[in-house]
Amino acid sequence: MAAIFSWKPFAYFALFFAFTLTPLVTIAGRRHRRLFFLSILLLTAKVQYDGELGYTTNTTWFACLLMASDFLLLADVQLERELHRPEEGSGRRWKQGTGFLDEKTLRQRFVWALDLLFTSGRGVGWAYQPRHLRPQLPDIPKSTFLIRRTLLLLFIFLTLDFANAHQHSNPVFCARLGLVNAGWLWRLTGTACWAALAMSVLSIPHLLLGIAAVGFDISRPRDWPPLFGRLEDLTSVRAFWARGWHQYLRRSLTAHGRYLANSVLKLPPRSLSTRCIVISTAFFLSGLVHQLGERVPLKRVGYGPGGGSLMFFSLQPLAIGSETLVSLYFQRTSLSPAWRRALGTAWVAAWFVLTLPIMQDPLLRTGEMDPKFHTSFVTWVLGTGWDLEHSRICLFE
């Protein structure tokens, strides 16, 4: 079975970021930025041909490719107001030749470029920071932040351990049945388990980086709002994707959608048609990133048809549009806010239980989503022992 994560192409990633950082630091012109992006495309073709990437690393590669397309092709980093932190400038567009970056030293531009590549995805602290993050964390004391985040990190580790133990007993994972063929109860618990695993795996590095950055006074507690939203964000599919799920690709996805709507189709910036184009493009590109990410691992284990990520993400605008129409009806009803939240949460759960198999079943059936850890602290506490690999707890005959 192919590994879900692979460090083999580390040299490729080093070249990738070198080709991305160099034109940003040197303030290269548009023509030179295109040449660097062409080099990245050739590097992408090479690494895909070699087929050494796991599912996670391959998906990360194409997510970074989307980011490079934004910074090297679509945006002019010297003039784009959004690509600078508010405290660094006056909020206006800088004139060519006398721009903000021209006034910085090489070291300052290098630090800015690193900051741009690794922290600008969600927009926290940048000029385009989403409204729901302003501010989500007040200026709490450093010690309070570190204690809270450490406790949250321990909770996330326990959640990951519990979800991993559940994988060993759920035939969706341990018998590779997939979500569709395992029955509705296992399908429901399998969907919840996948969500817990995904949130845990994404949250752990975010929490560790936040603890380190604040602990060493590199950044402030307010620069590290929670990666995921609150329970209130589970009342609609739109709220889930806009505020509930992580926003690592928010900038890159919306930038491509705005470029298509405003520069290619010449639509008014704040029109309804522009919003529809931006949303549809964002989900299409997100699906494409995941589809391309799983292509090599699935091909390597002999799964010919490919994954279903593109279809899964392409269906999300349909759900958003449908619930928008339905909400117009509920506005005229006398349902209490509590009932509306309950119905909304049930709708979101039903939607993902119904559609998640489109994306996950190819990975589940080929073993890409097999349990990765075979010991469990949770099962030890419950008295069933540490070892999960030889406990034969898979509930499948």
Structural account:
The chain has 14 helices and no strands. It is mainly α. The longest helix has 32 residues, at 184-215. The chain is globular. The model is unreliable at 88-98 (pLDDT under 50).
How would the blueprint of this fold be written?
Elements: H1 10-25, H2 30-50, H3 55-74, H4 106-119, H5 142-169, H6 171-174, H7 178-181, H8 184-215, H9 237-244, H10 250-264, H11 272-300, H12 309-330, H13 337-365, H14 377-381
Helix pairs in contact: 1-2, 1-3, 2-3, 3-10, 3-11, 5-8, 10-11, 11-12, 12-13
Based on Cα principal axes, name the global outline. Answer: globular
Number of strands: 0
Enumerate the spans where pLDDT stays under 50 for 5 or more consecutive residues.
Answer: 88-98
**How many distinct domains?**
2
The number of distinct helices, counting runs of at least 4 residues, comes to 14
What would you report as the Rg, rounded to the nearest angstrom? 22 Å
Helix/strand/pairing class, anyone? mainly alpha
Overall residue-averaged pLDDT value:
85
Helix content: 55-70%
Instruction: Tell me the β content.
Output: under 5%
Described by strand count, sense and barrel closure, the largest sheet is: none
Membrane topology: Multi-pass membrane protein
Protein name: BTB domain-containing protein
Organism: Mycena indigotica
Keywords: Membrane, Transferase, Transmembrane, Transmembrane helix
Concise summary:
This protein has 397 residues and is mainly α. It has helices spanning 10-25, 30-50, 55-74, 106-119, 142-169, 171-174, 178-181, 184-215, 237-244, 250-264, 272-300, 309-330, 337-365, 377-381.
